[in-house]
Amino acid sequence: MIVIHIVSGYHLASSDRARDAVLITGCSSGIGRATALALARAGFPVWASARRGAGLAELAQAGCRVLDLDVTDERSRARAVAQVEAEHGAVGVLINNAGHGGGGPVEEVPLDLVREVFDTNVFGLVRMCQLVLPGMRARGRGHIVNLGSAAGLVTPPTGCPYAMSKYALESLSDALRLEVAPFGIRVSLIEPGAVRTEFLANSARHSPADNGAGPYAGFKANVAAMTARAHREGARTVLTADEVAQVILKAVTARRARARYKVGAQARAAPVARRLLGDRGWDAMMRRVVPLPGAR
Known about the structure:
Distance between the termini: 69 Å
Order of helices and strands: EEEHEHEHEEHEEHEHHHEH
Strand order of the largest sheet: 5-4-3-6-8-10-11
CATH class: Alpha Beta
């Protein structure tokens, strides 16, 4: 008999998916932390991870299992998946949330930064999928949730390499979704707009050093000012981590999960404007929004 529980407004089938273990990467703050709490409150067995699991005490108190997981390190990745599988047989839901920010003008961005961003946001994510898929296929079900971004739908100036990595997840998720569907495995891509978390400050720390000089100095200053305005406290277009976590909960508990979840006005409106304006119209608008001093 299948018993249906109603948890936080969502229906969970207790016979199967409600008991499947959830493994979440990047839970030290922001969306990862909020998602771990939301799913734990909904009754899922949650394994919350971060590069330093010792910083997840609050999640442990909330009922999550916590573990060290550096998505760029093979031994760390394999060990984390093995821990979950040893207790639950398989990872039921993988939420690829760990992310690395940073960006700048293409001419100036260090290639080492590009490699670091892709190592976390793309290569580490791909490997996490590879590690959990055999167990999911053996069980005949599973769900992989990838954290994309509105930056993967519309490229902002100085978005290299972060936006590049999020565009890669669009392609990856499309391919993976078709490949694993015959095995009962679902793939969803979450595409939030700007989110008020520590990620913005972390991204700034990973961006190329700026001494206020150089050919793009004025442009970068305008981008920084625009970003600060968008993220100021109370800005209506900026999401909270909890709002994104609720969408992830909706995807995980849906009977028929969608391929994509656009979260917030930015993620919904910007791609439409981009398509309607075309290349020239979009470029003209962006030059007005983020002017490059001296450009014509």
